[in-house]
Design brief:
Shape: elongated
Strand order of the largest sheet: 2-3-1-6
Order of helices and strands: EHEEHEEE
Low-confidence stretches: none
């Protein structure tokens, strides 16, 4: 048994949730916040039998796409203003960050 933790952009979360349900994967959906862009994202916790891990990863891959987005940088408070860029920069966001963890025990009460 494995625990798949997938951190996805909010824009992809509803599509991913539907795809997981359609393929009989149960998941817990958590609202989370990214540390780099300080924007909302969603973390899915999915318990999966070993033989279904690749199928679950393919569903995540198919439903979570990266995209480019303009980001207005936050001014440094008390930091070095010489390196501050005062105009928006384009960054790649989205896709999914996925962790696959071994599970020793699984209980459902």
């Amino acid at each position: 048994m494995k625990l798949i933790m997938a951190v996805v952009q909010d824009q992809d979360s509803n599509r991913l949730m539907r795809a997981l349900v359609d393929n009989n994967f149960r998941s817990t959906k958590l609202a989370t916040t990214g540390g780099f862009l300080k924007s909302g994202n969603t973390t899915f916790m999915i318990g999966v039998e070993d033989v279904r891990v690749n199928k679950c990863l393919q569903i995540i891959r198919d439903n979570c796409k990266s995209r480019d987005q303009l980001m207005a940088p936050i001014s440094p408070m008390g930091g070095n203003a010489d390196s501050y860029i005062p105009y928006p920069v384009e960054v790649s966001v989205g896709g999914a960050t996925v962790f696959v963890l071994p599970i020793d025990q699984f209980h459902q009460f």
